[in-house]
Amino acid sequence: MVYELSNHLTKTLIAHLRDQSSDALRFRRTIGEITKQLLYEALKEPLLVQKSITTWRGKESYAVIDEANIIVATVLRAGMPMLDSAIDVLAGASAGFLAMKRDETTHKSVLYYDRLPECKGKTIILVDPMVATGGSMMDALELISKREPLKIITLNIIGSPEGLEKVSHAYPEVDVYIAQIDEKLNDDKFIIPGLGDAGDRSYNTVE
Predict the structure, then answer these.
(1) What is the pTM assigned to this prediction?
(2) For residues 23, 19, 175 and 172, what is the CA-based torsion angle, rounded to 10 degrees?
(3) Which of 48, 115, 169, 174 could make an S-S bridge to 63, C-beta 3.0–4.6 Å?
């Protein structure tokens, strides 16, 4: 299922991302804030465990998210601000890293780095700002699915209807939480209206 955020704060933050005057620091921070909003929605019904902690009244037990069985995985490098934000909230979770590069001629992605922890029986939260053609996300989902996770959730900032339809058709069991579904892909497979290259804008690597 695809779940799109609908609150006015999210839409305002998306407008900040589209604004080309937003510098890299503001861009990364805004990505981080939207990631937290997505995370709150995605974890409304998580698996809970009882945790004993020492409070001002002594030992007490509370139901908490089972962070030890969550892996936040990202597709480098654009997903790094999202991963950092998610790990800030889920301090007990592990991080995983994948690196893919899109071939600008074929529009297909090529995996060249894989650093995922043991996934079997765990909840994987895959974070990636952009879902354009859906190719890189599907490649990541294919790789993760083979490692027998309990559940896969994706958090995304911007996506095209075409890419999201492709992903949800191929992986109907994956829950996709996205901040904004944009209008379409253009002939060059870029999201319209989009916000530019998220990795370049996050780290000032625009040529």
Answers:
(1) 0.91
(2) -120
(3) 48
